[in-house]
Amino acid sequence: MKKTIGWLACCAGLALASLPAFAQQTGTLLVEFQGPGGHSSNNYGRTSALHAAGRAAILLQTGMPAGSYVITNLTGGNSVNSIASDGLIEVQLTAADATAYAALVTKVTSAAKGGADAENAFRNVKAGDLTAGAPANIRYTVTPK
């Protein structure tokens, strides 16, 4: 009888260990945007890193599975009445396993690229364009925290 109970307990433990909840992978990504910045009156029309971050956040909402991510921080800019030279999104990801996690990282990277590309297109800026000697286009990086 003791062997049967022990065997059942062992089987139950193995069954629980195989559930996806025990195999979840989580992590946080920093999605950073950089642009030329400037003052809103003198530099009207320049790209805004914070606008690119906002556009990327919208793409995350529409392109990511519900419950797979949380935006824990969205920030940028220097002051009131300025065009943001920097923008940051912190995204916490939760996936069933490493393969699903890698797919979510790819989607976040795609959203960052889409946000930067949309802001650059809206302002009619291409890679290589300069404004006051600095790159005029929005650039982005996605790094694990």
At the third CATH level, what is the topology name? Alpha-Beta Plaits
Structure classification: alpha+beta
The number of helices is 3
> From N to C, what is the helix and strand string?
HEEHEEEHEEE
**Helix content class:** 25-40%
Signal peptide: 1-23
InterPro entries: Bact_exopeptidase_dim_dom
Organism: Ramlibacter agri
Keywords: Signal
Describe the protein in words:
- This protein is of the alpha+beta class.
- It has one domain (about 25-145): Alpha-Beta Plaits.
- The chain is about 40% helix and about 30% strand.
- The chain has three helices and eight strands.
- It has helices at about 1-15, 50-65, 100-120; strands at about 25-35, 40, 70-75, 80-85, 85-95, 130, 135, 140-145.
- The chain has a four-stranded antiparallel sheet, with helices on one face. The chain has a two-stranded antiparallel sheet with strand order 2-4. The protein has a two-stranded antiparallel ribbon with strand order 6-7.
- A hairpin with a 2-residue loop joins β6 (about 130) and β7.
- α2 packs across α3.
- The longest helix is centred in the last third of the chain and has 25 residues, at about 100-120.
- The protein starts with a helix and ends with a strand.
- The mean pLDDT is about 90.
- Keywords: Signal.
- It comes from Ramlibacter agri.
- This is Peptidase M20.
